[in-house]
Amino acid sequence: MKLIILDHYSQASEWAAKYIRNRIIQFNPGPDKYFTLGLPTGSTPLGCYKKLIEYYKNGDLSFKYVKTFNMDEYVGTLGGELRLVSLPLRKSYTWSSVTSCHHHPPPLLPCNFVMASL
């Protein structure tokens, strides 16, 4: 894990977007080798997402062979809960969840995985 401290939101957004872009490019994904990206929800990562869109529109980045897992659901909760994203992190969602990940259906486990967290 890296901890990068920058002075402004725009700097953090650009740093994160460049990091994600570079990891995707270095991985060189293709039809038999997808890159997997974990994406957080909420307003915090929007600046990063805007930069990624800019890279895509400029032809600097392709998402053709990129899979995403959107981090807006938590183990042990019902999918229809209205306040799902704002649930507090509890012990039942942490270490006990790690063991349950071994029972998670593919394609989550066999992935090259980058989790964007801003």
From TrEMBL:
InterPro entries: Glucosamine6P_isomerase, NagB/RpiA_transferase-like. It comes from the Eukaryota. One of its GO terms (molecular function) is glucosamine-6-phosphate deaminase activity. Keywords: Carbohydrate metabolism, Hydrolase, Isomerase. One of its GO terms (cellular component) is cytoplasm. One of its GO terms (biological process) is N-acetylneuraminate catabolic process. This is Glucosamine-6-phosphate isomerase 1. It comes from Hipposideros armiger (Great Himalayan leaf-nosed bat). The lineage of its organism: Eukaryota, Metazoa, Chordata, Craniata, Vertebrata. The gene is GNPDA1.
